[in-house]
Every structure is written in structure tokens, then in C-alpha cells.
Amino acid sequence: MRQIFLLLFSFFSFAQQTQKVDFKIAYGNISINAVEKKVYGSVKYVFEVKEAIDTIKIDAQRMTFTDVIINNKEVRFFNSGKTLNLFEGFKKGKNTIVFLYEAFPKQTMYFNNQINNLQIWTQGQGKYTSHWFPSFDDVNEKVVFNMNITFDKAYNVLSNGILKEVYKFNDKKIWKYKMQKPMSSYLLAIAIGDFRNKVVASKSGIPLQLFIQPKDTAKFESTYRYSKEIFDFLEEEIGLKYKWQIYKQIPVEDFLYAGMENTSATIFSEDFVVDDIGFNDRNYVNVNAHELAHQWFGDLVTAKSGKHHWLQEGFATYYALLSERQIFGDDYFYHQLYRSSLQLRNAVETDTIPMMNEKASSLSFYQKGAWALHYMREKIGAKLFRKAVQNYLKKHQFKNVETSDFLAEVKKVAPTFDSNNFKKTWLEDYHFPTEIANDLLKKNQFIQTLFQTQQLGNNSFAENNENYKAILNSTVFYPIKTEVLYQIKAIPFQEKKELLNLALQTNDIKVRQAVAEFTADIPFKFKVHYETLLDDASYETKEIAFMNLWKNFPESRNEYLTKAQNWIGGNDKSLRILFLTFYILSTEGESQEKTNYYNELVEYTSSKYETSVRENAIINAFTINDKETTVLKNLVNTTTHYKWQFSKFGREKIRELLKFEVYKSLFQNMLPTLSENEKYQLQKLLIEK
């Protein structure tokens, strides 16, 4: 109870502060020390005191301060370790504060150095910018941020807004960024690295600045495919011009999430930097559109609290789907809605928190939020929906909102729309209205055909065979064809042979991948046909096909190794690691080549590589030698990584190994060779009960 009281007190105290004090403009003049992982410099805020207040607080996690000056006079202050508390020197009306600070951020700003490829970047949402820059955790305090950032001249430094000037300062450079409009502090961002960029003009004249690492320039087009089309579509569909002067997109390695919509400067995961083949497996299009939509829904208009978070994520998810509809067509759009409807329907068994609750799941905020908007758009019509959204954004731009603010604008343009029932059904009830959703889905002919095809599963194969042939010979969207392949998975090969050949002849990547996936036992007479999957433009298909062929045809394994020896795969090097593992395990005796391949695999487990590479390599290295000291040490190193998904993988793997005495001994013996942080993490695991 005491913790709840303190949290509520903190929330209400800051809510009261935003009513009485308005911070207008921030001028940051900071330097970043990559070796010490330190941020330091000066900050100036211009603020207005609207009502009498005893103490003004600026959020600042574990920072030190000196030379605090308000209105040109040095003042006393209190540093709580979480906030800079000001209690003298300010007056009603306009004020300025200037101070020096230093911080060693433990989160929010991340220092990533892989194979001499230094990157530094920030993630403010959910982590709080106040860990690296004195600012405001309360999203209702919106400020115009202007940043001067000093760093090594060999790198490129990116931040929000327009880059006004870059000039040399000794062996460094200073990058000067300026913004014109206010935003919440969690949207303040920095990204530092070796980046190149290309600028494309949107239809409305906004510069779209697309960044890439030099090593990835060949992947530029496939990574940013449709970026201009998405931007132009969203400006037109939303009906309100983009407000932030410039739009940058920056891929970074080992990012915590898929992407983050920092105002005018989206940072996204290197996982989405793909070549033409990788594009077919997982591309940036949806994330690209989602983060761009946030520039309106989240950045321009920001939810007042977590209870209304769907106003950001639901809108961004839905407008990303609308963007994909524009690019890939209606069938794709409805298939994505159908897939999310299945997730939402199944989730209610364990997820009982409604969407208008700050503790709601991401699935609710994102997918159910998108569904709620789709229902509304279908009910009142696209034209009125667009008008309501446009009015909502215009009225509340650069401000904070609640759900009632949006529904009020809907009511104005569509008076007969039952917003109370909408709120009750979609926002306040944790159940998903499957029947309503299915009725909306059935407006699309593809979905009708998909539902009909699913019903074929109740018939015998003999009854369905001709229907199956007709479907595979047709031009229907691929999920209907993959549904057929799923239904015949258990049918004897001789009976379904013709259907499998028809599926391969479609030359559809997803349909052919379904053949690879659903044909685990490959008869010799089908071997040559199945082997064509090794040449498909999909890394996922290649991997599935290789493993199935390896299992079914031991006598051809050398041929498959020869085929795969130059494969790399995506950023996770999945196909390279596959080849190394299978070569080492299948080759008898010792040779220099085998040793080199083993050393290469072990090298991929090290901190020189991205976490997706390391995790895959660690798993595979253990299948070869589960007591390799270097791999075990690199496994311990995973527990110190800032990316929680990866450190969790490391901890769980070590816990699994510690069930055996031999590993306890191995880990204890390596303690003296570990760094202090590694030692601390391993010791915690060793003493766990």
C-alpha cells in the first residue's frame, strides 16, 4: 500500500506541476563520452509559472548538478537522486534556468560496440529520457527541444528536428539540431554511428532522410521499399499535413523493439535491414508505416495517461494496415485483420484486462485498438471517419488527449453512431466480439472463400480433390492455397502428389514454403521436385528444405553441404550457422577446414556480433561441444546485455545447465576470468535455490 501511495503521490504532484508550471523550450548543450558511458553538459529551460508553487521538479535519474542559475542568479537546489528540486529564484510569469549536469545512464541510452562498430542510441518510451537528459517523465509536459551534441567527428550524430549546423571543435564536431514545436520528453532521441543517407522528397515537400550503415548500402532499396508511397498515402489519408519539417529513419543494431517513433526521427531495428530475399521473409513495410503514423498519433497528439494508450498504438496499427492495403491490396489487408482476430479471440482465455486500462496487454492496445477503429470506420463510412480524425488532430495538436476527446469528434460528424455502445463493447469489455468481426471480414470475397475452404476439412479427401486442384490452379490469394496444403498434410503422398506439384508450379513463395513445411517425409520420386525449394527467394524456405532433405536423404548430404557452403542468410546469419553446424557434425575425423569452421561458429557466440547471431550460434555450438569454455564464457556474457530478451535467454540457459554438477564446477572455475559485471551475474545464478 505504501508503494501505491507513493506512486499516486508522485503522479498527482507532477500533474499539479503541469497545471501550475509550463516548460516551454529546452536548450541542451551536451557531450557524450563513449568510453566512460557518460553524458554531461549544460541545459537551459525557458518556463512559465502560471500559479504559485513551492517546489518545481525536473526529472533526473542519478545525476549530479552544479551552477544552477534561475533568472541570472545562482540558487540553492535539492537533488533527490530522481529529481532536481527547485524552491527559490523563480517568479510568476516567464523564467529561465541554466545548469550543468553529469550522468552515467544505466538505461535509456545504450552504448553498443560490435567489431569496432560503435553505436549509441536512446529509447525513451517506457525507459524515461530523464536517465540521460534532465527532462519530464510526465507525458503531459510538452517542450520544444533544441540539442547541441558534441562527439567524435568520425561519426554521424542524429537527433530530433532540423540539423542547422555542424562545425569542428578540436578533434570532435558539434551537431546543432532545432525543433519548432513541442513534444513529450520520451520522444527526445539521439542516434550515433557510421551512417550514410539518401534524401527523398515527399509529395508535399517534406524531406525523407533514410539512413543506412555503409556495410548495408546494397540493402538500401529493399529496406526502404515503399517509404515514399507510405508517407504520401498517410498524409492524404489522415488529412493533416505532417508537422515536423523533416522525417528521419535510422536502423540500429540490437534495438530493444521493432521501432520507436521519436519525433521526426524514427529509430528501428537492424533486423529490418534486408536484401531482396530477406524482404520476402520479414520486411520493414509494416513497422515503417506504424512508426510514421505515430508522428500524428502519439507525437502530435499524445494520450494523457496509460489508460488511453490505445489512442496511440491502436491508431498506429490501423493506419499501418491501411498503408499496407494501399500497397498490397484488399486481400492482404483483410487477411491481416483475420489473423489478429484469431489472436484476440484466443487471448480472452487468459487476458481479462480491457483495453481502457493502463495494464492492458500489447495485443489489446495494438490489435484490438486497430479492430475498434476498423469497426467504427465501417459503421460511419470512410469519409466521415476521415473527417472525425482530421478534426480530432487539428483541435488537439501538440496537446494531450483522452478517449472522450476522440469520441466527441466522432459524435459531431456522425450523430447517430452509438459511441456509448462502442466504448462498452470495444474499449471496456475484455472479450473480443468475434461475430461482429467475422461479419466485417466477410465483406471481402477472399475471406469468404477462405472460410469456405476451411470447411472443406470436414469432407473426405476424395470429395475435396477436384476442389483442391481448382484452388491451386486459380489466382486466389496465397492463404487459401496454403490452407489446402495444411489440410492434405497427413494424406499419403501418392494420393496428393499431383496437388503438391501444382503447388510448386504456382511459383508463389508462400505456397512453396508451405510445401516445404508440410512435407516432412519426402519420397524419392519427389526428391528432385522438393530440391528446387533450395533455390527459392526465401531464407526461411531454404532452411526448412535443407533440414528436411538432410533427414530424408543421408546419401545426398555432401551435395546439400556444397549447395549451402556460401549461404549466409539474413542479419542473424541463420544459413551460415546452419551450414557450419551440419558440416562439423557430419564430417568425421579432424581437418584444418573443420577446425576453421568450428572456430568461426564459436566466434559468432562472442559480443562482437548482434544478439540474434549470438543466440543462434550459442544454441548450435552446444550441439557440438556443450562444455566448450569459450562458449560458456560468452553465455555468461549474455546475462550482462542491455537487451532484456537476450539476457533472459542467457540466464535461462545457465539455470538449465546448473541442474548438472559438471556445469556448476565449470562455471565456478571460470569466475576469476570474468569481468566484475559478468562475475556478479553468474554468482547470483550460482546461489539461486
Compact overview of the structure:
The protein has 689 residues and is of the alpha+beta class. The chain has 27 helices and 23 strands.
Describe this structure in words.
The protein is α+β, with helices and mostly antiparallel strands. Helices cover 46% and strands 20% of the residues. It has 27 helices and 23 strands. Strands 1, 2, 4, 5, 8, 11, 13, 14 and 15 form a nine-stranded mixed sheet that branches. A hairpin with a 4-residue loop joins strand 1 and strand 2. Helix 14 packs parallel to helix 16. The longest helix has 19 residues. It is globular, with a radius of gyration of 28 Å. The two termini are 29 Å apart. The N terminus is likely disordered.
Low-confidence stretches: 1-12
Percentage of residues in helical conformation: 40-55%
Number of helices: 27
Quaternary organisation: single chain
Keywords:
single chain, 689 residues, alpha+beta, nine-stranded mixed beta sheet, five-stranded mixed beta sheet, 46% helix, 20% strand, disordered N terminus
Write the layout of secondary structure elements.
Layout: H1 2-20, E1 21-33, E2 38-49, E3 56-59, E4 63-70, E5 73-74, E6 77-79, E7 83-86, E8 93-103, E9 109-114, E10 117-122, E11 142-152, E12 156-159, E13 162-169, E14 172-178, E15 183-184, E16 190-193, E17 196-201, E18 207-212, H2 220-223, H3 227-238, E19 247-252, E20 259-260, E21 265-269, H4 276-281, H5 285-294, E22 301-303, H6 310-328, H7 330-347, H8 362-380, H9 382-396, E23 399-401, H10 403-413, H11 419-427, H12 434-441, H13 445-455, H14 461-473, H15 478-487, H16 493-505, H17 509-518, H18 527-531, H19 539-552, H20 557-564, H21 574-586, H22 592-603, H23 611-624, H24 629-638, H25 644-657, H26 661-670, H27 676-686
Parallel strand pairs: 1-11, 18-19, 19-21, 22-23
Antiparallel strand pairs: 1-2, 2-8, 3-7, 4-5, 4-8, 6-7, 9-10, 10-16, 11-14, 11-15, 12-16, 13-14, 17-18, 20-21
Helix pairs in contact: 3-5, 3-6, 5-6, 6-7, 6-8, 7-8, 7-12, 8-9, 9-10, 13-15, 14-16, 15-17, 17-19, 21-22, 21-23, 23-24, 24-25
